[in-house]
Amino acid sequence: MSFSDFSKVETISELNDLLADKSYIDGTSPTQIDVVVYKAFQKQAPNFARWFNHIASFTDEFDTLPEGNAPAAAVAAELAEEEEDVDFFGSDDEEEDEAAEKLKQERLAAYAAKKAAKGPGPAAKSLVTLDVKPWDDETNMQDLLDNVKAIKWDGLVWGAHTFVPVGFGIKKLQINLVVEDEKVSLADLQQLIEEDEDHVQSTDIAAMSKL
């Protein structure tokens, strides 16, 4: 199957099943097939992809994150109730459509009012995926990771990471981070990481999106 149309539930379901016991769509290392499918999903569901990557950056903090404005259980119950009420496949009943549209507009208006009451929004942030490449297959990747995460910077939050095979037994570190754009220079951050000359050969920004 070609995983290109993510407007279909079947596409997401079949891709999820395929990846149940795989790290990549084809083979044992990343290929252009992974890139094409990744870009297709990013293009068709940019907001979800941004949210998912952002939340993934807090993986190490899941157990300590605050409840928020409403308890998680209450939010889940509300979502379940809304799913029962909403017809995702459309309705021929014009009155139901009008009521749904009215409810939507009311919620949008309430959200806009709440946002306006809070005043200026938070500082602009970016979600970044950084590749850190070692010298060879003998480089201690745990030491490399520890040295990277030891870098502390106001406006910088380290997120989830993985070691990605690049060939010949060599793996690179791929790590997510969130930065406040006005406080953190990515070029300076890369330079700091590359100062670990015993472990780091080079760094590259693999992906970046605004939050």
From TrEMBL:
<dbReference type="InterPro" id="IPR053836">
    <property type="entry name" value="Arc1-like_N"/>
</dbReference>
<keyword id="KW-0648">Protein biosynthesis</keyword>
<dbReference type="GO" id="GO:0005085">
    <property type="term" value="F:guanyl-nucleotide exchange factor activity"/>
</dbReference>
<dbReference type="InterPro" id="IPR014717">
    <property type="entry name" value="Transl_elong_EF1B/ribsomal_bS6"/>
</dbReference>
<dbReference type="GO" id="GO:0005853">
    <property type="term" value="C:eukaryotic translation elongation factor 1 complex"/>
</dbReference>
<comment type="similarity">
    <text>Belongs to the EF-1-beta/EF-1-delta family.</text>
</comment>
<dbReference type="InterPro" id="IPR036282">
    <property type="entry name" value="Glutathione-S-Trfase_C_sf"/>
</dbReference>
<dbReference type="InterPro" id="IPR014038">
    <property type="entry name" value="EF1B_bsu/dsu_GNE"/>
</dbReference>
<dbReference type="Pfam" id="PF10587">
    <property type="entry name" value="EF-1_beta_acid"/>
</dbReference>
<dbReference type="GO" id="GO:0003746">
    <property type="term" value="F:translation elongation factor activity"/>
</dbReference>
<keyword id="KW-0251">Elongation factor</keyword>
<dbReference type="GO" id="GO:0005829">
    <property type="term" value="C:cytosol"/>
</dbReference>
<dbReference type="InterPro" id="IPR049720">
    <property type="entry name" value="EF1B_bsu/dsu"/>
</dbReference>
<dbReference type="InterPro" id="IPR036219">
    <property type="entry name" value="eEF-1beta-like_sf"/>
</dbReference>
<dbReference type="Pfam" id="PF00736">
    <property type="entry name" value="EF1_GNE"/>
</dbReference>
<protein>
    <submittedName>
        <fullName>GTPase, member of the Obg family</fullName>
    </submittedName>
</protein>
<dbReference type="Pfam" id="PF21972">
    <property type="entry name" value="Arc1p_N_like"/>
</dbReference>
<dbReference type="InterPro" id="IPR018940">
    <property type="entry name" value="EF-1_beta_acid_region_euk"/>
</dbReference>
<feature type="domain" description="Elongation factor 1 beta central acidic region eukaryote">
    <location>
        <begin position="88"/>
        <end position="115"/>
    </location>
</feature>
<feature type="domain" description="Translation elongation factor EF1B beta/delta subunit guanine nucleotide exchange">
    <location>
        <begin position="125"/>
        <end position="211"/>
    </location>
</feature>
<dbReference type="InterPro" id="IPR001326">
    <property type="entry name" value="Transl_elong_EF1B_B/D_CS"/>
</dbReference>
